[in-house]
Amino acid sequence: MSSLDEEFVNISFDDEVHAGRPLSEKWINHFSQDRAGTDTTITHALQRMYPHHSLIVTSDYGLQILGLPGAQYAPIPGETRLSHTVFSPPARRVDGYGALAEDIKFGAFYVEWQSQHFILYLAEWAEGFGTTRQHFILHKGLDETPIRSLILAASNYALELREEILVFEGGSWLKDHGLWVEVQKANWQDVILDENFKVRVQDDIHGFFKSEQVYRDLGVAWKRGVIFLGPPGNGKTISLKAIMKGSSHPSLYVKSFKSWAGEEASIRAIFTKARQMAPCILVLEDLDSLINDGNRSFFLNEVDGLESNSGILVIATTNHFDRLDPGLSSRPSRFDRKYLFPNPSHDERIQYGKYWQQKLKDNDSVAFPDSLLSEVADLTEDFSFAYLKEAFVSSLILLAGGARHDSFEVVLKEQIQSLRKQLDNPEGEKSIV
């Protein structure tokens, strides 16, 4: 018996040792026949089982009382726990094996938190087109304050982001640790762009969050919209990741508006969460693919409608700025600043070559003379940064695999020539972004 089990036994729960059948038995019987008002049935049964307790029922899906730090719990003897065992795969196959987790459909627990003792019944059932999940929380006495304090603490804990980024997909928000890990890999040193341009972008982003009082003094709403635009493969995404990494404010990342409830419901949920999390960064990647004729009006109403978007910095990216409605692309109050990420200039292509030269300086098997920098820059006109990266990476892979015994210079020029053919073929260009 665990220490918590012993503590609950030694305390003597008096009327907690209720008479009659366990609730789990009533639960099973209830779902074995025609039914109506499941929550009413459970509430009534618990009030009869624990007549000297206060009871609060909550339907918050995000509530994780059993996972609240400092909370200890033990199953209530005699109550049957109904659960599904689910397999949680690893984020990547090379990370090893997955794990089994328990998805509780019905459970009863004694819970201790901050020297207060509670009884928790957790139930989930099918209803209509979806499912309902409710927590029934009891505490001895008529005072509901301890229960409300427990719910408030668990709810606030659920809102916290711990090495996670909020991602919206399929109509709901999920906490994504994997995306957070990818963001941590981004560094401005790896973003080969004009230094003045990088400084302007960073100053614009960080300056917004430092300027709340300035906005108020000017009598304007403390919100901002920024668009990163330009052909694919030129640093929009890595710059975005570097911004997210460097910000002390939460980032909310939107993958799609599509959901079973419709795109308008998704847009509403996105901005509702952003307002809750503000000050924050709301990322809308590939804005031209998110906005369409059916959702444009609703989106614009959320951006600059009656509700306050105070503290929200919207950063949108697009490879096709020309496809955006003028209401988005041309009206400053929606997207105040636009940053163009064009194909790299001759000087930027030299700087990118120096970036790789520095990375390879300790590799004795790769000769990268300074003379090669200008040659590569000359040969790669109209290349995006993604094409430049592919030229270097594919060359190094060929050399590392032992398939080629030519010099790095020879292989690199061959790869550039091959990529040039793809660039001249519009279908080939789509394969590298």
CATH-level-4 superfamily name of the largest domain: P-loop containing nucleotide triphosphate hydrolases
Widest beta sheet: strand line-up: 8-7-10-11-12-9-13
Return the average pLDDT rounded to an integer.
Answer: 88
Determine Rg (CA atoms, Å). 29 Å
Uncertain residue segments = 5-15
Describe the fold and architecture:
This protein is of the alpha/beta class. It folds into 3 domains: 3-160, no CATH class; 166-340, 3-Layer(aba) Sandwich (Rossmann fold); 346-429. It contains 17 helices and 13 strands. It has helices at 3-11, 23-30, 38-49, 145-159, 177-184, 195-210, 212-218, 236-246, 263-277, 287-290, 296-304, 326-329, 346-359, 371-379, 385-400, 408-424, 426-429; strands spanning 53-58, 72-75, 82-88, 99-113, 116-127, 130-140, 165-169, 172-176, 224-229, 251-254, 280-284, 312-318, 337-340. The strands form 2 sheets. It has a 7-stranded mixed beta sheet, sandwiched between helices. Helix 5 (177-184) packs across helix 8 (236-246), helix 13 packs across helix 14 (371-379) and helix 15 crosses helix 16 (408-424). It is elongated and about 90 Å long. It comes from Botryobasidium botryosum (strain FD-172 SS1).
Write the layout of secondary structure elements.
Elements: H1 3-11, H2 23-30, H3 38-49, E1 53-58, E2 72-75, E3 82-88, E4 99-113, E5 116-127, E6 130-140, H4 145-159, E7 165-169, E8 172-176, H5 177-184, H6 195-210, H7 212-218, E9 224-229, H8 236-246, E10 251-254, H9 263-277, E11 280-284, H10 287-290, H11 296-304, E12 312-318, H12 326-329, E13 337-340, H13 346-359, H14 371-379, H15 385-400, H16 408-424, H17 426-429
